[in-house]
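[09:14] KT: can someone run the structure on this one? pasting the chain below
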Amino acid sequence: MASLATRPSGRPRVEELEGRILEATQDLLIEAGYGGTTIAAVAERAHCGKSAIYRRWETKVDLVVAAVRASQVPPELPDTGTLRGDLFAAAMHFAGADGRSGRVLASLLTAIGTDAELYEAAYRDVGQPPLQALVAVIERWIERGVVSPTVRVGLIAGIVPTAAFGSVVLRRQSLDERAVRELVDFVVLPALDAPGV
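[09:31] RB: done, structure tokens below
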């Protein structure tokens, strides 16, 4: 009988199972779309019981949104010293995603128009964090006196995410670095009526 000191911790196994479940969900989103991604199918592919999934995620929506989030790079709030640099760094969250994460996201975005619960959860957990990073960048530069306090912050911050999600849905690919740079230089900065310094 193993002592407490030598008994292996259960946490790595739990994390491994969660990883398998999320990966199986991503695979099914790519292969079968949102409609074909059922809890039963995920459980079969992840080699676990449905109860193991429901202990972690209450609904299919929760599971799918968690799987999409797991495929994305978490957004960061940059501080490069310039407005243009901060906007570009924050907007690069929407660029350079690998093909797999782009296909997972495309499956989600294709389905949100037909499921109000999925739309709300996806907007809150997938769309909002990177949008809020762009909002925070603009608000920082308003406080520094570079951007007018009268600008429509939410509207302007939404330009890059809207273009990015449109590209994923329509072209099945993320924006590239050049597209992000052009959006910042020729759309976002002029909309802010700011020099970008």
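[09:33] KT: thanks! The mean pLDDT is 90.
[09:34] RB: yep, looked fine to me
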